[in-house]
Write a structure and sequence with these properties.
This protein has about 850 residues and is α+β, with helices and mostly antiparallel strands. Helix content is about 50%, strand content about 20%. It is built from 30 helices and 31 strands. The strands form 6 sheets. The protein has a 7-stranded mixed beta sheet with strand order 15-27-26-25-16-23-24, with helices on both faces. Strand 3 (about 40-45) and strand 4 form a beta hairpin. The two termini are about 55 Å apart.
């Protein structure tokens, strides 16, 4: 069970029992949606699961389960996916198979008697006994379920089966026990025990094959679950290894992994050297070398060396468990097209019952001689041939197989909407750092002017340690200065850099835009050196103290070896590829040239990226995929038609994105688009055949062909057709596992982006200074600064000596009265004056 902290809501996965068709799933979903406090519900008929989000202040999981029980089904809290097994599904399959075998064995003599010895009276009594055993023994579940649904004023697929077979059996019994009554009314009493028993046998065959096939749709989940070892060697405090169960290890334990064993937890190597097969994460078969401090991931295989490592995350917190949960959630999600199917399924069974009754009365009044017999046969055949199961299985089985196959290729799909969006993409927007590049920048060059303070490097390292930006981390790690400098008034300025105060002086560390924004003087020699470094695809970070720049740091982030090939593949598919980066024009141009990107924009703030994607979507009618890895990409990822996150990036980016490339290899993007297209094509095939089957089969079952050619469908054929329809849909979905993924060609006429829309956006920043009276100490200063910075569109720096507030307005300038009101409300009795 997970908690949504942002909205204080709980979400959980539940196991469902007692469903027999898509109508059942629709009824459960409708019941849960009406329950007080429930905000979101998704019921997956194929997986027999429900994902529910609710407000704990209004309801709880027990109340939800009770609500489902009140409508005739059972809902249980799902087990942790990492600890799940297949016992329940296996026992269900074995029970179905056992019933199926007995139903076939007992139905065969009934068929022989009914076809070859229909007028043999002892044979009719034998058929009565055997068919009764089949109906209420092997097929008893259908009648029990139908009665339960009746008690709750509902109906489902089992209702159709129970009605059709029950009517055929009851009609045959009346003919067997009271033949004179029918002869007195001019009707020859025939028995149809073979129809009733064979229908049960065929439906059990279909259910058994369906259960077996549905196991195949979840094979990817089971394969991922099987990657965790059952036990592991833990090194105790005496340095001796002891074998313990996987559930007994905790974060911080030292674990030993021998050659050929699976890694039991996520952690870092502390001794040893080896190569590890990480193909379950990346999809790449080449083992990865591991040394001291290298990261290890649960489920991967240690190839040849012995490793000792410290467990950082264990159990359900490992990357493997997160992947399993993400795949399971995606397999349970629904694309928008499924909403129409669910709506149809909710009305399907009642409509079929009405049509069957209408068919009976039409035959009864239209055919003066054999109307009753033909009416009963039509009633039974219509009830049995209609199949909401095929409709209910069409979408979820294809989604489950597609998501599972994607996971084995190193692609995590968040939900079914991503599958529906991916084939429509015509434009791909790429971030630079961590997406096209490796995301592990290193210091290439440092240069200080002669007048720079002696502790400038220490101040630089101390300030960068306070930032979580990849370039800041690279600079802090590269300098490794042992000297720590206290930084006051530290401020992280996304899209620009960082700002802080040391010994009363303002220090700025960031890009050139930051210096221009603060009117910092740039020495000529630093400007010349920065341009040559940027031309070599390096990112230049400026260091300023007070009014002038005092140094530059050139950071180089190597371009991934696979980026150029991936971009070439995308362009060959017909996709329009763009590079958006916060870096300067020169560096962006150099990276674009090396990677093979024709279109690029530089010096973009996070909000600029999101606005540019909106521009492509609304003005140029583009379907845009945004590919990024950082927190600063999250707005653009959320704005895009499809967000694709790099697996080595931030958790926020992966939460927002619809897909995640675990290995951060851009070559997986064309594969993801191709697989999504295959999955969507399979869904459409399934829905087409499911609709066509029902639309064409029901009129034939009702007898529309009888006046034309004398054909009236036998109920036994109807039972076989119904069973085949469900099995064929699941089988078609399973074929998705074997279909070849090709690079699809995008055939869209794209309107070129106008030059006016490529002009970098400029921001007019207004700066004002105000005197502040009433401040007595550093705490007073901090209160005033915090109050001013809480105002949208305001950046403020407050000093105690002199008592001045320097305020920058990024939007419209605010009057002093508005600023004063906020200070009074949030800081206290401090007065602003001009």
């Amino acid at each position: 069970m997970n908690t949504d902290k942002s909205q204080d809501k709980l979400s959980g996965n539940f196991e469902l029992r007692g469903m027999s068709c898509a109508s059942c799933a629709a009824r459960i979903e409708r019941t849960l949606k009406k329950h007080p406090g429930v905000s979101e519900v998704s019921v997956n008929y194929a997986a027999a699961t429900a994902k529910v989000e609710w407000d704990p202040a209004q309801t709880d999981s027990d109340s939800l389960c009770h609500a489902v029980k009140d409508v005739g089904y059972e809902m249980l809290a799902a087990r942790d996916v990492a600890d799940s097994d297949d016992n329940v599904a296996q026992l269900h399959y074995l029970a179905l198979r056992r019933k199926m075998i007995w139903a076939i064995v007992l139905s065969l003599p009934v068929v022989v008697i009914g076809m070859g010895f229909m007028h043999w009276i002892p044979g009719q009594w034998i058929s009565f006994g055997l068919s009764t055993a089949v109906l209420f023994g092997m097929g008893g579940q259908f009648f029990t379920s139908a009665f339960r649904q009746l008690r709750h004023r509902s109906c489902n697929m089992d209702t159709l089966v129970a009605l059709s077979t029950g009517i055929a059996w009851a009609f045959s019994v009346s003919n067997l026990f009271f033949p004179q009554f029918w002869r007195a009314h001019g009707i020859e009493p025939h028995v149809y025990f073979e129809a009733a028993s064979v229908i049960i046998a065929f439906i059990l065959i279909g259910r058994t094959l369906e259960a077996r096939a549905k196991e195949g749709t979840t094979s990817a989940i089971r394969k991922l679950m099987g990657l965790r070892p059952k036990s592991v060697v833990r090194i105790n405090t005496d340095g001796v290894g002891e074998e313990v169960a996987i559930d007994d290890i905790v974060s911080g334990d030292i674990l030993l992994v021998r050659p050929g064993e699976r890694i039991p937890a996520d952690g870092s190597v502390i001794s040893g050297h080896s190569f590890v097969d990480e193909s379950m994460l990346s999809g790449e078969p080449v083992p990865v070398e591991k040394n001291i401090d290298s990261k290890l991931y649960a489920g991967t295989i240690n190839a040849n060396g012995t490793l000792q490592f410290r467990a950082d995350t264990v159990g359900s917190d490992t990357l493997l468990s997160k992947i399993i949960r993400m795949v399971q959630d995606a397999q349970g999600s629904k694309p928008p097209v499924q909403k129409l199917v669910d709506r149809i399924a909710s009305y399907f069974v009642p409509v079929i019952i009405i049509l069957a009754v209408i068919s009976f009365f039409v035959w009864l009044f239209a055919d003066a001689h054999g109307g009753l017999i033909h009416g009963v046969l039509a009633l039974v055949t219509v009830l049995i041939i209609a199949c909401p199961c095929a409709l209910g299985l069409a979408t979820p089985t294809a989604i489950m197989v597609g998501v599972g196959r994607a996971a084995t290729n190193g692609i995590l799909i968040k939900d079914a909407r991503a599958i529906e969006s991916a084939p429509t993409i015509d434009t791909v927007v790429l971030d630079k750092t961590g997406t096209i590049t490796q995301g592990h920048p290193e210091i290439k060059h440092i240069e200080w002017i002669a007048s720079a303070p002696s502790n400038a490097a220490a101040i630089l390292a101390s300030m960068e340690r306070l930032s979580d930006h990849p370039i800041a981390i690279a600079i802090a790690n590269g300098l490794q200065s042992p000297q720590h400098v206290d930084i006051s008034n530290f401020e992280n300025m996304p899209g620009y850099g960082v700002k802080g105060c040391v010994d009363g002086k303002i220090w700025l560390i960031g890009n050139k835009k930051m210096l221009l924004k603060h009117n910092v003087v740039i020495p000529t020699e630093l400007q010349a050196h920065s341009e040559s470094l940027e031309a070599d695809a390096a990112t230049v970070i400026w260091v300023a103290c007070g009014p002038a720049a005092i140094g530059i740091v050139a950071v180089s982030d190597p371009i991934r070896t696979t980026s150029a090939d991936a971009i070439s593949d995308m362009k060959r598919m017909g996709l329009d590829v763009w590079l958006l980066t916060g870096d300067n024009e020169t560096t962006a141009a150099a990276v674009a040239r090396i990677a093979g990107v024709s279109n690029w924009r530089a010096s973009m703030l996070p909000q600029d990226k999101a606005k540019f994607i909106e521009l492509l979507q609304h003005k140029y009618n583009r379907k845009v995929a945004m590919v990024g890895d950082g927190i600063n990409d999250s707005a653009a990822l959320a704005t895009a038609t499809l967000g694709i996150a790099m697996g080595q990036g931030s958790d926020i980016a992966m939460d927002v994105a619809g897909m995640t490339i675990i290995s951060s290899d851009l070559r997986r993007i064309p594969i993801a688009i191709g697989l999504s297209r295959l999955t969507l094509h399979t869904i459409r095939q399934n829905l087409f055949w499911a609709f066509i089957y029902n639309v064409s089969a029901i009129p034939v079952a009702a007898g529309v062909l009888y006046p034309l050619c004398g054909f009236l469908m036998n109920p036994m054929i109807a039972g076989a057709a119904m069973a085949f329809s469900s099995v064929s849909v699941v089988t078609n979905s399973l074929l998705l596992k074997r279909r070849h993924i090709t690079l699809p060609t995008v055939r869209h006429h794209l309107t070129p982006v106008e030059k006016s829309d490529l002009t970098p956006q400029t921001y007019k920043i207004m700066k004002r200074e105000y005197k502040v009276s009433g401040m007595m100490c550093g705490h007073c200063r901090a209160h005033v600064e915090k109050a001013l910075n809480s105002i949208s569109g305001v950046k403020a720096t407050v000093t105690l000596d002199p008592p001045v507030a320097t305020v920058e307005f990024t939007d419209a300038e605010l009057p002093i009265s508005s600023l004063q009101a906020v200070v009074n409300d949030k800081a206290g009795e401090y007065q602003l004056s001009e």
